Backbone:
DNA sequence: TTATTTTAATCAATCGTTTGATTAACTTTG
DNA sequence: CAAAGTTAATCAAACGATTGATTAAAATAA
């Protein structure tokens, strides 16, 4: 059946996403990925052409869902700039737990600073999200909600940098925070509320007049 | 000469540090490192035992200089907590340019979350730095300089996360900031002042009463 | 000489990929 | 309907290339 074929492709992508994020691109061998997925090694090349093709598809699968989530927020006229920021932080806090290993994989690849098609594509994708945030911050300045001298690029770097620091170095962060952030329940009950609350307080103090 | 031998060892370490941080541990083959350093491949194993031994020595070379830099600050009685924070941010801003590729290599390895001796050693080292910062923040709360409800671990994560985000994704950050942070002159004249100034303003707004 | 440093050649292991054969399901033909 | 043909899916096996590591010989220094 066609359905089964799609499911199997998707299943391989699921497994590969996990293995890549655990081991990195180089560390995740095609033998390991195919082994974990319970399929023959040759299937990876059969379905995705190459290891890099497989890697690419993992990201492309997510792109569409990334695209329009933030655009609706940016164009919403019923909220002021700070309310949009709060909403942005809420969504961003949710993603930490939901796309944990995808986010890690994403920034791991970007951190390599390769100049291949894949890396450039990923950078463009992330910059699209950044542009939405940039729009909100500029709107806040224009409307007099935010201080005039705020450093927009640095605010963006802070927002994403703090999140990445925590989820990319879980063994460090767990000792820093005092609880195990590799535990899903801890992420849900402690990390998510903590990071949302902190970011709102931090940016409220910095942005608002 | 013994001198030359030490110099050559050190030179290999310099080159390896750069290559590792550019390509990652797996991506940096012994052939590439030895080629860049202009020495025979076998020299790496002769001097450092193995590839991992070489990797380890790169970090061990830096550890001693890391140790006591911050301790002097923490024990200084002539400054109040916020002045110490400012001083901390100054030193932290300087390190961005000075130990650029070492910092990158450091967090790249920690991000792997391996459970070998090396990774555990590195985590302990970083936590030592963190402890100093923790001390300053607690002192500020105790003395009534800082708000009582500040989130200390998250402040630390923000400080290091923002820095790492910028230096680990230079191609992203350059587009975000509007200038090329791979250019040393740009780092010196623009990035360093900007990140120092921003961090002081951000934390001043969040920490101070 | 003796001891140390450096080299080229080679090792087994692993990498991503390709191959040719086989299976199963669907389509076409008679 | 049944036989023949066609297709995609899957497999074990092997490919050439590259990996980190080792060797024994050559070069250098003491």
Residues:
């Amino acid at each position: 059946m066609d359905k089964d074929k799609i499911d199997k492709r998707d299943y391989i992508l699921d497994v590969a996403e996990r293995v890549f994020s655990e081991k990195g691109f180089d560390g995740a061998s095609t033998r390991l990925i195919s082994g974990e997925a319970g399929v023959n090694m040759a299937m990876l090349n059969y379905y995705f052409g190459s290891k890099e093709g497989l890697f690419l598809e993992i990201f492309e699968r997510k792109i569409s869902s990334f695209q329009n989530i933030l655009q609706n927020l940016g164009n919403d006229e019923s909220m002021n700039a700070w309310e949009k920021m709060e909403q942005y932080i809420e969504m961003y806090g949710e993603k930490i737990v939901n796309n944990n290993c995808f986010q890690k994989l994403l920034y791991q690849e970007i951190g390599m600073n390769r100049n291949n098609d894949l890396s450039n594509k990923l950078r463009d994708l992330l910059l699209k999200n950044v542009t939405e945030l940039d729009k909100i911050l500029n709107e806040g300045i224009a409307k007099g909600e935010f201080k005039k001298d705020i450093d927009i690029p640095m605010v963006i770097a802070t927002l994403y940098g703090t999140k990445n620091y925590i989820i990319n170095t879980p063994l460090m962060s767990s000792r820093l925070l005092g609880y195990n952030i590799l535990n899903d329940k801890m992420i849900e009950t402690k990390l998510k509320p903590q990071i949302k609350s902190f970011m709102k307080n931090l940016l409220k103090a910095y942005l608002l007049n």
